[in-house]
Write a structure and sequence with these properties.
Layout: E1 5-8, E2 13-16, H1 22-30, H2 32-42, H3 45-55, H4 64-70, H5 88-92, E3 109-111, E4 116-121, H6 139-143, H7 146-151, E5 156-162, E6 169-171, E7 177-184, H8 193-196, H9 202-205, E8 208-214, E9 220-226, E10 234-236, E11 249-253, E12 258-264, E13 269-271, H10 273-280, E14 284-287, E15 292-296
Parallel strand pairs: 1-14
Antiparallel strand pairs: 1-2, 3-15, 4-5, 4-14, 5-12, 6-11, 7-8, 8-9, 9-12, 10-11, 13-15
Helix pairs in contact: 1-2
Amino acid sequence: MDEIRYFDRYSQTVCTEKVYGDEALRWTYGTVAGKISLNALVKRAAFSHWYGWRMDQPSTRKKIAPFIKEYELDATEFACDVDDFANFNEFFYRKLKPEARPIDASPHSVVFPADGRHMCVPNLSECNGLFVKGEMFDLSSLLSSPEWTRRYASGSLLLSRLCPVDYHRFHFPAAGTPGASRLINGPLYSVNPIALCQNIQILATNKRCITELETEAFGRILLLEIGATCVGSICQTYTEGNAVAKGAEKGYFRFGGSSTMTIFEPGRIRFDDDLIENSRQHRELYARVGDRMGELTN
């Protein structure tokens, strides 16, 4: 894969992604020496924990200002001043001002759970692939539950990919009552398209957390957070059993790129047209948390 292209919902243009750590990523997944390193070290949790520890050190504060400039982040959205971050990791999982991510108010809508690049599958039983035609991950491996696999086999799925440059807190896409977060351990491969085009099963086998959200309008929604290389940890901030509003914070990722999945029961959601059309072209749609991704089916 030479370039990663996505469609920006706001500018209505096709953009080329500026990949953080692009050279290292292409070396790891595109060379023999890199693949040896990947299997011996990079995919292992110890490597990501070590990198996360590095990003906790006070000396990493000096990386913050150049990062903001390089990736053209809007610091006026941050809930605190740039100088208040004690290290790069604090900056990475920063909070934003509430007005920076307004939540779509329609009672019939469901919203994106994270800032990032999104792809949808309206019907999992008819999917012809995500990033590459014909290449799809195994649902039973992903969910590790025969009951859930049966229930969502013809359901609808949203994959949201967060790059290191993105806001890294994830939110509830609809109002409801969340259950416990179930951890399934696994390796920590990159979830960048460079890696996924080689092995889409990464999404089904990486370390992941699964939460069931009981909602009045959309039935039972599965919310997944998927770890990746250099993700120090997946941190949940919600309280099990307490009702949540649409757009309420669920948790955050520490340093690294990562992904979330939102899976609906069959016939519950109609995704927005721009999301469907770009997904048909195996191209991601960039949109921010709180903006609508679809609506309740009639």
